Amino acid sequence: MVPTVLIIDDAVHIRRLVARMLEQAGFATLQAADGQEGLNLLQEQKPDVVTCDISMPYMDGYQFLAAAKGTPETWHIPIIVVTAIGQEEEVTKARAMGADAYLTKPFSSSNLIETIHTQLKKHA
Questions:
Q1: CA nearest 77: which of 35, 31, 122, 113?
Q2: How far apart are alpha carbons 17 and 19 in whole angstroms?
């Protein structure tokens, strides 16, 4: 079975780039332009892993984390925060809200793929 990764980012070029990287590595992907769209897909599709930006319209990454980790059907799905915000307090806040990993943009495809594999193993 091919693992599915939900990519949540308001920047369409980032979503497409990450989707291409992951599809080339053998993952299936779903894409959302904001936290609310991502939450809807999370609840409907139950992907294996989520990558999520912090700064987005409608529902930001922190609001998404709170909603996803606060729901019994989705709290166990690993969420990797992928953002340009790299300050230590932001990393600490995201982890306290349930983020399973935190990557700062720009990141390498190998680092992202390794992080996803780590989360899949941890949550298997």
A1: 122
A2: 5
Rounded to the nearest 10°, the torsion over CA 104, 107, 27, 95 is -20
Q: Measured between alpha carbons, how far is 47 from 22 in angstroms, rounded to an integer? A: 14
Pick the closest to residue 52 from 2, 3, 116 (CA basis): 116
Is the pLDDT at 85 greater than 80, yes or no?
no
**What domain range is 115 assigned to?**
4-122
Mean pLDDT value of segment 49-54: 96
- Say how many domains are in the chain: 1
- Which residues share a beta bridge with 30? 6
**Dihedral, 32, 37, 41, 44 alpha carbons, nearest 10:** -160
The CATH code of the domain that includes 91 is 3.40.50.2300
